[in-house]
Specification:
The protein is 15% helix and 35% strand. By secondary structure, the chain is α/β, with parallel strands linked by helices.
Amino acid sequence: MDVDETIAALDRGEVRVAEKVDGDWRVNEEAKAAILEYFRVRKVEPIEVGPFEYLDKIPLKHDHAERGVRVVPPATARYGSFLSPGVILMPSYVNIGAWVGPNTMVDTWATVGSCAQIGADVHLAGGVGVGGVLEPLQARPVIVEDGAFIGSRCILTEGVLIGERAVLGPNVSLTGSVPVIDVTGPEPVEHRGYVPPRAVVVPGTRPKDFPAGTFQVACALVVGWRSEKTDLKTSLNDVLREFEIGV
């Protein structure tokens, strides 16, 4: 496929920047390369949306009604991103190359960065920042798997993978190097760039020695596990309350 065909296929959801194959996420480097080339060849041009005027290289998505997507003004989804049926965009932003699964809520002022992969039945709460990853081509984008709940003002960058049905409390900030420490057992278990499925995660700190002294550095703590028996539609707020985490 040439560049235009690849971007059109991304827009229709026929091609994805990353997909799960045999249990592992695999990056489509050709799709990422096409996005980078698309940025290079496109020219800046005005875009008028009612009383608003923009100046950009990438057009906006259209035909939301045909796709079964609800888009609340002034939410923006760029051409080359894909929104599955049942997606709701509150005033938010979805960048090129991103894929958003069925019945997912992108809440107010949340951002879904370039190439991010957001699963089905996910809730990105208000102000969530999902970072974009275009280069290097082999780099995994941020991935949020099915049924996860990402609390208000969480930040996910550098190809972080959030497992199915995980729950992140407000203000959890994760990069590829921030420790995610499971403190539910007799000994801590540490992950990097990964939140296990069904984990309930809150912000934390731990001491680290520097030449100037010992200081607290950011980490995230797995403080519990979401019950598999709990109904998806009611468990999100309930599980946060169970572990005394604000929504």
